[in-house]
């Protein structure tokens, strides 16, 4: 029997990219899923794809960047399942504009979705996680501590650094309650968001990016969304029962450089 059978996994930003990769891995492991995202059409398609005899998939279409929505979203989650075993904060934004061009509105968008939403949603759902001695997994980024040529990421890096600090501090604060808190810091992953960001670059910058991948990644390639899903499944499993406050680097060796 799969360890995750009958366990309930909440994934924000679960409609594409890394979130979808995580959802696919947990569905394969027979978990029940609640996916939260803005695009209802994508969510419905994923619900049809992943629902099977072993896994139920429920969806909530909502804008997590609007902090006023968090209480309603929290109540929707609890009404769907009072038992929460794993909460995965994957929803995020990364618009790589130069520091001097990043106005307060764009900075606030990064802070709201990448920092405040995980903070407030965790606050609302923590009582349920305490009951199950559950897991919280934050999807961070190597950009919290590592910069790359041609990528201006100050606002994004700021928020992912804050998310790492949140991970460690919360793990320290609530560990005695039996709830583990970890983060995954992926390297570059082949997602729609990455491809969209690349389209904003000039041809010269794009060529430099692909050359840089071979130069700075020991494995000479970027990752797949399911690579992050497998890491999340490990951290949420009984095999990781003594792991908390970790920033788990899943980056193809990037941070060795």
UniProtKB/TrEMBL annotation:
Q: Is the keyword Thylakoid in the record? A: no
Q: Which UniProt keywords apply?
A: Oxidoreductase
Q: Where is the signal peptide?
A: none
- Show the GO MF annotations: dihydrofolate reductase activity
Q: Name one Pfam family in it.
A: adh_short_C2
Q: Does the keyword field hold Repeat?
A: no
Q: Which InterPro entries match?
A: NAD(P)-bd_dom_sf, SDR_fam
First-level EC class: oxidoreductase
Q: What is its EC number?
A: 1.5.1.3
In the record, the note on similarity to other proteins reads: Belongs to the short-chain dehydrogenases/reductases (SDR) family.
The protein's name is 3-oxoacyl-[acyl-carrier-protein] reductase
């Amino acid at each position: 029997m799969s360890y995750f059978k009958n366990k309930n996994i909440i994934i924000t930003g679960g409609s594409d990219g890394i979130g979808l990769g995580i959802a696919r891995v947990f569905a394969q492991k027979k978990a029940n899923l609640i996916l939260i995202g803005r695009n209802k059409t994508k969510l419905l398609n994923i619900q049809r794809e992943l629902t099977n005899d072993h896994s139920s998939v429920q969806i909530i279409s909502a804008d997590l960047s609007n902090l006023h929505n968090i209480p309603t979203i929290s109540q929707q989650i609890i009404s769907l399942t009072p038992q929460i075993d794993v909460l995965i904060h994957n929803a995020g934004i990364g618009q790589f504009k130069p520091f001097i061009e990043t106005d307060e509105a764009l900075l606030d968008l990064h802070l709201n979705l990448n920092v405040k939403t995980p903070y407030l949603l965790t606050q609302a759902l923590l009582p349920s996680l305490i009951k199950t001695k559950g897991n919280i997994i934050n999807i961070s980024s190597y950009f919290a501590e590592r910069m790359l040529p041609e990528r201006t990421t100050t606002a994004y890096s700021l928020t992912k650094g804050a998310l790492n600090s949140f991970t460690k501090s919360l793990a320290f604060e609530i560990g005695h309650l039996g709830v583990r808190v970890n983060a995954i810091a992926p390297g570059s992953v082949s997602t729609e968001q990455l491809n969209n960001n690349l389209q904003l670059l000039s041809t010269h910058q794009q060529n430099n990016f692909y050359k840089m991948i071979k130069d700075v990644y020991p494995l000479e390639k970027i990752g797949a969304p399911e690579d992050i899903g497998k890491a999340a499944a490990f951290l949420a499993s009984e095999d990781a029962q003594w792991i908390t406050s970790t920033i788990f680097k899943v980056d193809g060796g990037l941070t060795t450089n």
